[in-house]
User: What shape does this take?
Amino acid sequence: MTNSDKETQKPKKNYLINDDSKNINPEPQTEDPNYKAAGKLKGKTAIITGGDSGIGQAVAIAFAKEGADVAIGYLESEDDATYTKNRIEKIGQKALVFKGDVGQESYAKEVVSKVIEEWGHLDILVNNAGEQHVQEKIGDITAEQLDRTFRTNIFSQFYFVKAAMPHLSEGASIINTTSITAYRGSEHLLDYSATKGAITAFTRSLSQNSEVIDKKIRVNGVAPGPIWTPLIPATFTEEQLKDWGKGGAIERAGQAFELAPTYVYLASTDSSYVSGQVLHVNGGVVING
Assistant: This one.
């Protein structure tokens, strides 16, 4: 590994549950120090929503290692966004960072427009931004929460695809992050699971759209299982986290960097014969459908 490819110092954080006295370990990991890049995305440009932390950050770093310039979108965390940008540039690739709400169509238009203005082309779109809110009863899901979850998780994907479609290069790749909950459900994440089911249907339907087919664009999804990201300890209680991630054959939660190669595969010509599919990275949970 060259000096330019060494990981920059990542700020230490505490991921809190409910109050400031409860800390969660281990630290979520978004980079595999043993990753072997092969230039699979050399000369490509990518947009990744929710690219500042967790899965999005892991994908951004892997894409950069494979030779892509990467634009990330984020909502709040300036520190995470700055770290991701600096890491991409340390690797030797260009980075753009856009703060805003993916649930607003104007934001999607702004991000795509500025990427095209800066880099001149767009090859990969990763719709990854998401949010979830635990509720024990359906009656506790407010209209505001329902609207917010759908806007962030599925409306945003429509907005970004609409904005990107006129600019996507022939042979481009669209990758949508869905979830294991789309296939097995989640009793405490009713609205979130519903959006993930919608994402799976959107992915399959979009792959068959004539505009997509004419431009030879491949559309696929990734359905993560229990991945240890900052979203998890921020969402669940300490009691709910005791056995979290132990339901699969591998019997542990995954780290975000373990997902990243799946996105590299779907973004590269390695998957030239793959479209309309959802790949399951979930620690050994067998899912039908």
Observations:
- Residues 1-8, 11-24 have pLDDT under 50 and may be disordered.
- DSSP finds nine helices and eleven strands in the chain.
